[in-house]
Amino acid sequence: MNNLFRAIKNQSKLTDDVMVGFSTGKDSCVVIDLCFEYFSNVQPFFMYLIPGLEFQEETLRKYERRYGTEIIRLPHFEVSSFYRNGVFRKNDYTVETIKINDEYDWLRSQTNIKYIASGERIADSIVRRGRLHNSGSIDLKQGKFYPIIDWNKANVMEYIAKRNLYLSKDNRKFGFSFNGLKEEQLAFIKRNYVNDFKTILDYFPEVEIAVDKYEFYKQKGSKQ
Known about the structure:
The chain is built from 11 helices and 6 strands. It is globular. 53% of the residues lie in helices and 10% in strands. The chain has helices spanning 6-12, 26-38, 54-67, 78-85, 100-111, 126-135, 153-163, 169-174, 183-192, 194-203, 207-223; strands at 17-21, 41-48, 72-75, 116-117, 138-139, 144-145. Strands 3-2-1-4-6-5 form a 6-stranded mixed β-sheet. Strand 5 (138-139) and strand 6 (144-145) form a beta hairpin. By secondary structure, it is α/β, with parallel strands linked by helices.
């Protein structure tokens, strides 16, 4: 497993400062831990779909305490398209479309840190394999680091176990963190985090219709 640390060792030779995109997913849990091991100045950030969901805040607070840091919270860039195009809510074409690079530019302006570490891996998908193969573990043009570019899922889970890193309940259920307004994930939140589901309804009131439909057909299918 020692060869897997080659990427972050090389990255740490470029700079002492790095930001970390922390989604609370398993890959980002490994990346944030590695960054605090190899860089002297680390600033994590978290992009939320709905602000203040307690099950996500619980995870964020655990990692803030672990590393003695404060995680920047900001809206996920996809939220602008959700609002503009009326995803589970009334559309609002006055909302300006935000791109991921807009958020990166803002973060860099606030922190004065150029490089952003991300948990993307070659093994994730064919598309990601092609892109990361071209960029390598250090993308100088985009200012991105990929510390676990060559890791597989088994490497990630072994590291999490060895370092006793916390994985949230939604992560353990799906194998990834809450990352979109998908019916299966929303139904899970409705069952396990009642207050958080109510908060989601404040922003996306039509979600409940989609969840009820999902649960109806799931129950119907289980009886056949």
